[in-house]
Amino acid sequence: KDSSIAGPRALEHLVDTVLTFEGDRHTALRLLRAVKNRYGPADEIVCFEQADDGLREVLDPSDLFREHRDRPVPGTCVTVTMEGRRPLLAEVQSLVTVSSSPNPRRGVSGLDASRVAMLVAVTERSGQARIGDRDVFVATVGGAKLSDPACDIAVCIALASASTTRPMAGDVIAIGEVALSGDIRKVPFLSQRVAEAGRLGFRRVLVPRGTRAALPTAPEGTTYTEVAHLDD
C-alpha cells in the first residue's frame, strides 16, 4: 500500500471501486465503466450521449453502432460484441480498392490493426478474394471500439463483400472467432448475443459449429446457421 509493491496504482488497491469515464471527442458517446468493483461485477458499463443540455443515458446503445439503410451495401457486416455483460450490436465496414502505389495502404479505425492484418490474410487465402495488393480500409460505426474476437467473422465477411462488391443480406448477423486456419471458433456468452440479435430483428444468425444445440429456441422467423470454416 506504500507503493513498494503496488507502484503507481497504490490508490487503486485501497479503494473498493474504480470507475473510468471514457469518450472520444469526435463522437457524442460516453461510457462509464467499472474497472474494479470489490463487492460486485467488474467491467460493467453505462452508456451516455453528450447533448447540448448535458449527459443523457442511452438505454439502447446498439442503435448507435450500426447504420440503418433501405438496402444492403457491399463491405458491411453486423456482429454482436460484449461490453461487460451487456451485448451490443456493432457494424464493421470495409473498403477494398485498387492501389495506386506499390505498397498498398491499410487504414483501421475502431479495431486492432494487427488483428485486422491477420484477418485480411486469412480472408484472402480462405475466401479466394484478391485483397493483399489492394488498399484496404476497415472501420466501425459510431466510434465503437471492438476488441472482442467474436467480431472476427464480421470483419472477414466485410472484407470479402467489399472485394467482390457483393453485399451481405441486411437481416444477417455473424458471430464467431476466426483462427489462422480459417476455422470458426466458439465464443463466450453466445446465448446473450443471439438473443440481442433476435430482439433487434435479425432473422439469420451465423454461429460457430457445434453451438446451435446449446442456444435458446430461435424466435419465430429466425434461423441459426452453423459455420465451420471461412470457406463456408
Q: Which key features would you list for this structure?
A:
232 residues; alpha/beta; four-stranded mixed beta sheet
Walk me through what this model shows.
The N and C termini lie far apart (54 Å). The strands form four sheets. Strands 1-2-3-4 form a four-stranded antiparallel beta sheet, with no helix packed on it. A four-stranded mixed beta sheet has the order 5-6-8-7. The model has no long low-confidence stretch (mean pLDDT 86). The protein has helices at 10-14, 113-126, 152-164, 190-199; strands spanning 17-23, 29-37, 45-51, 54-57, 76-83, 86-98, 106-109, 134-140, 172-174, 177-178, 184-185, 204-208, 223-227. With 232 residues, the protein is an alpha/beta fold. A hairpin with a 7-residue loop joins strand 2 and strand 3.
The CA-CA distance between the termini, in Å, is 54 Å
From the alpha-carbon coordinates, what is the Rg to the nearest angstrom?
19 Å
Profile the largest sheet: 4 strands, antiparallel
Q: Which percent range describes the beta-strand content?
A: 25-35%
Strand order, biggest sheet?
1-2-3-4
Mean pLDDT reading: 86
Structural class: alpha/beta
Please, how many helices?
Answer: 4
Low-confidence stretches: none
Q: What share of the residues lie within helices?
A: 10-25%
Shape category: globular
The helix-strand sequence is HEEEEEEEHEHEEEHEE
Q: Count the strands? A: 13
